[in-house]
Specification:
- By secondary structure, this protein is α/β, with parallel strands linked by helices.
- The protein is built from 6 helices and 5 strands, in the order αββαβααββαα.
- A 5-stranded mixed beta sheet has the order 1-3-4-5-2.
- α3 packs across α5.
- The radius of gyration is 21 Å and the shape is elongated.
- The C terminus is likely disordered.
Length: about 150
């Protein structure tokens, strides 16, 4: 996806627009571009931005970092202790082949109070995100203290 990112920057500039390094989060009203069948749909997206009169596009990308991957593996090990043979840990370790690779690119432009987004992602990055989400979900699990409930009933 490094090459794709370079192609995007060149294409955006070729259309007289600028790529501003910014990520558009969930707190902003957005519309997600959906054309997964067309691998070059990002070009149509850039052309739509130009047609809408956008002076620039936001552009954000995520590169897998070794420290972030190590932290993920460590947290998976801690949440599954003492069981070290958990498939999620092995799956996270296989992601080391993608360290230094771009896994996600987001393009965006604002028009009439809404931000239009186009996102490209790799399968390995989606898997990485699923592993991160599983940790967040694990952290949200509330464990009830049954001893306290027993004491109140007596």
């Amino acid at each position: 996806m490094h090459t794709l990112k370079d192609d995007m920057v060149a294409f955006i500039q070729g259309h007289g627009l600028r790529a501003v390094p910014a990520y558009v989060g969930e707190e902003v009203p957005t519309v997600l571009w959906e054309d997964e069948e067309n691998p070059d749909s990002w070009k149509d997206f850039v052309e739509a931005a130009k047609a809408a009169g956008a002076p620039f596009l936001t552009m954000s990308d995520v590169t897998l970092d070794q420290e972030e991957l190590d932290l993920l593996v460590e947290e998976l090990q801690e949440t599954n202790f003492p069981d070290e043979e958990v498939p999620e840990i092995e799956e996270a370790q296989t992601l080391s082949a993608h360290v230094g690779s771009v896994g996600f690119i987001q393009l965006g432009f604002a028009h009439q109070g809404v931000v239009f987004l186009h996102e490209n992602t790799t399968e390995w990055y989606e898997h990485y995100q699923q592993l991160l989400d599983s940790l967040e979900n694990f952290g949200n699990v509330v464990i009830e203290d049954t001893d306290e409930d027993d004491d109140e009933e007596q």
